Amino acid sequence: MENRELDSRRWMILAASCLVNLCIGSLYAWSVFVRPMAERLTTTTGQEVTNLAIVFTLANAVGPITMISGGAIVDRIGPKWVIRMGGILFGVGMIASGFATSVAWLLVTYGLGVGLGVGMVYGATVSNAVKFFPDRRGLVGGIATASYGISSVIVPIIANALTSVRGITQSFVIIGAAMLVAILAASIVIEACPQGYAPSSWQASLTTVSAPIFDLSWRYMLREPSFWMMISMLLCGAFSGLMITSQASPMAQDMVGMDASSAALVVSTLAVFNTLGRLVAGAASDRLGAVGTIRLVFVSSIAGLVLLSFAGSGHSVPFVAGVCMVGFAFGSIMGIYPGFTASQFGAKNNSVNYGIMFIGFAVAGFFGPTIMTMLYGAFGSYLPAFFTAMVLAIAGLVLTFVFQCQQSHVKTH
Questions:
Q1: Residue 208's pLDDT band (boundaries 50, 70, 90)?
Q2: Domains of the chain (ranges, CATH numbers)
Q3: Are the C-beta atoms of residues 124 and 73 closer than 8 Å to each other?
Q4: In angstroms, what CA-CA distances link 62 with 78, 116, 118, 128, 384?
Q5: Tens of pLDDT along 383-401?
Q6: How would DSSP label each residue in 303-349?
Q7: Is the pLDDT of residue 299 over 50?
């Protein structure tokens, strides 16, 4: 009887988790905030501030800290309180960012506050949701992460409108306060997945034969060669997406000559394809397998980067098409990995294991925007950054074949 009640309630828990992820996904609207905030800081400090990429870079880099520590806490006190603590950190950090008078202020409030809050909340919602759906890991991982990505469709438009009418400070305050209230309200519905839970109508299909017999702790996971290949593939897959997401609005204005409103629309379009990638690839991985789906994702990323390399002033079609393909590939990787990690190392410790796996994302989040900024500053062009991302995507594609060979070797022995 208890399982049957959970079978119904798990969908409500998933919906609440998606609402929470929708709120914290506003982190990816940063590129819309960049120029208005730079103008504010220039006026406040009296010194020209042109580059705030380091703030977004830090926010992405610190996420795994609270994903891992929060994952350990989830196992003790449950996801509800972890989500609440992370939500407060996120909301207060967002509100305080609106009053920033220096880059250092932003690094503390947005880089650390918002970044650490996102890591804590995201790790708890995604890993817990995947545990409730052992029968649909890929699909649910895609849905949970897609709700995170869809925020970038909505918030940039709202943020752009708010900023033009109310100014950058009130824009941060209004968005931060609204997200905080929504996260706290949704957390009421969320509960921990009981250990060993399985839907009453579900029977392990033949595709789950490859699932691990034992639930590996993070210590044992780190000893597995498959872990190091998986985290490397995640890094290679997330690099181009994070690089372009962090600078999508300035890129649209500098490369193609778009105005701020059109550039904000490009950011939202990128986010739509980011979201579609999470849904489509998450569901596809349940049927085609995670590795086969990831292989197709790298092909899409490479094709998108090639198109971006041909874009220029007055050539908006290849630019938008390239951004969409890279966004789709980025979202796909993020949608696949929660279920991929659970299926490879077990669901029991997935809160911590996925947090550790997410370090690959954080490394990409640091080096992607940083390398783009450095190369653009050195060459005055985005082309070297696109070529760098292409090399990593090709490396990731090669790794999918190495991973498959390694898994085949393990099975035969």
A1: very low
A2: 2-193+219-412 (1.20.1250.20)
A3: no
A4: 22, 6, 9, 21, 27
A5: 999 999 999 999 999 999 9
A6: HHHHHHHH--TT-HHHHHHHHHHHHHHHHHHHHHHHHHHHHHH-STT
A7: yes
